[in-house]
Input
Amino acid sequence: MTLDVERLRREEFPWMVDGESVCLNVASTGPLPARTVRAQQEFTRKRAAPHRLSHEEQFGVLSDSRERIARLIGADVEEIALSVNTGAGINLAAWTFPLGKGDVVVIPDLEFPANVYPWMAAAESRGFTLVRVPARSGLLDEEALLAALDRPRVRLLAVSWVGFSTGAVADLDALGRACRARGIRFVVDAMQGLGPLVLDVTQTPVDLIACGGQKWLLSPWGTGFTYVRRSLVHELAPQPVSWMGVQGSDDFSRLLAYDMTWRADARRFEQITLPFQDFAGMATSLELLHELGPAAIAAHTRRCVEALMNGAAERGIPVATPKSRHAGIVSLRPADAAAVSARLTAARVEHSMREGAIRLAPYCYTTLGEIEIALQAL
Ligand SMILES: Cc1ncc(COP(=O)(O)O)c(C=O)c1O
Output
């Protein structure tokens, strides 16, 4: 499968064609496709005079988003709760999974704080123990993580699919299988993984996925989702509680029934009211990702990442991201990172600095010509 990158750039990211900037920073904020901006604007324009926006249209952007997210990860739509960020899903796990005094939750070191503070806070309040497994040579130590699962009373493992600063990919299949074999719950922060990599939850045993839309899903700020495995939905009572988390709440003529019977599906976890205009954008971005093809996007991203890694190595720049375990992030550790960053900026190469490393992140719209510009600047 190949992707028509030039066409994609012309139609959705015309400013890239104009050479305004080389966008290697989707790991911070994804660019919005032109059709997404149009969808958001159109929705907001109607909402200015609310009678122009039908109930079906308003709630339709949510159901479209759920359906397209489900399709992206091989889930059932009943397993998807929309959220406004990654943290919503992690917090749901930290506060609602059955965890009590003496229970152990394992996380690796080097996690983005969205997958740390909720666990620290919940551990303090709920009395479980949080174990942080040290990294090895600055990278996720998967062996140590697997070994940690055999400690007494481990109930849950939570990891980032892709490390935000290292770009290293966790082997979700291996970790998920190990958790499943031990009856341990497996929670994944998919923020830096979904898009540059593909995922099928019918094959990979994950219990809960938390993911924001603002990076690799090319979606507006304030969009995201939580996947909860079907068999688990019934075991978790919503936290926090939303007025539309209960059955029958779609019928606005019977809101005073006060019947606290949670919805049977993952919508029990959704925090209505959601930013509808932003989900109009997300539904549109997801439509584009499906049109391009998740496998084709992943393959193109891989080519760009490998060209970057090889080019950097040829120039003697230490590449922190492991070659055998990369997704879309390339983390470089040149001797003088600040000077290299300044050269990239001068060449209009959008990048970020994370934990002393230069983070570059190409994606479906990146050309090999742009990779060359970045390499020259290095
Ligand atoms: C791995 C990872 N998780 C989560 C986030 C962000 O979390 P949230 O969507 O809650 O802002 C980031 C970056 O911003 C990240 O790199």
